[in-house]
Amino acid sequence: MLIDLKGVAKIYAGLVPFRALSDVNLQVDTGEFAAIVGQSGSGKSTLLNLIGLLDKVSEGTYLLDGIDVSTRSDADLTRLRGTKVGFVFQFHYLLPDFTVLENVLMPSAVLESRPSKQDRSEAMRLLERVGVAKHAGKLANAISGGEQQRVAIARALARGKPLILADEPTGNLDTANSDAVFKLMREIHEEKKTTFLIVTHDERIAAQCDRIVKVTDGRIVDDQRV
Length: 226
Ligand SMILES: Nc1ncnc2c1ncn2[C@@H]1O[C@H](COP(=O)(O)OP(=O)(O)O)[C@@H](O)[C@H]1O
Ligand SMILES: [Mg+2]
Known about the structure:
CATH architecture: 3-Layer(aba) Sandwich
CATH class: Alpha Beta
Low-confidence stretches: none
Radius of gyration: 17 Å
Helix content: 25-40%
Order of helices and strands: EEEHEEHEHHHEHEHEE
Largest sheet: 6 strands, mixed
CATH superfamily: P-loop containing nucleotide triphosphate hydrolases
Bound molecules: adenosine-5'-diphosphate, magnesium ion
Distance between the termini: 20 Å
Shape: globular
């Protein structure tokens, strides 16, 4: 099992602490392709951030690939995230002053000071795979939104990460680009058996996933295999 959340809660600290997730139990096997749906403010991004080790659970336990992340140091978690988790966000978060190729290399540049030759050829292969290799040398802000999202997918896949977490990856795209980006994720899942968790508002897209997890008011209220 890749993801195992048991009795998880997230309480944001503050003057008035805010309980964003309660009693979340979620198990995801390697190779699943699942959607997370729910209204705005229901806790989808909070859940994805916990799963992606961007934030820590307040209650309950979280095992990522069998590792109880609560027992690990921040440095360990950063390393774990760097090897296991790729993110795709609604607004791509590419670094605009770097080239497309450099953006895909960024995870390796963070983990080590210099990307290897192997990293570079992998990055080019990934850019080819997502259909934007011809833009490799352009600055990231010089290509279209759909192309940027393809680059973000290539970046998320770099170094063979087994888990891709996508938060509204098509939320900012028109229908044609949205369908193309989703189709690309689906194909990559078929090819590489990468596990995908995709937060989406788009019912059409959710319906094309293998599993739909519904979050309401910080709780999982429905979990169906399609
Ligand atoms: N850093 C934070 N501090 C306090 N409350 C937060 C924080 N982040 C999110 N929330 C609150 O937690 C709830 C869930 O947010 P979020 O997970 O972003 O929902 P969704 O992604 O489903 O729209 C919302 O009510 C939001 O206002
Ligand atoms: Mg959100």
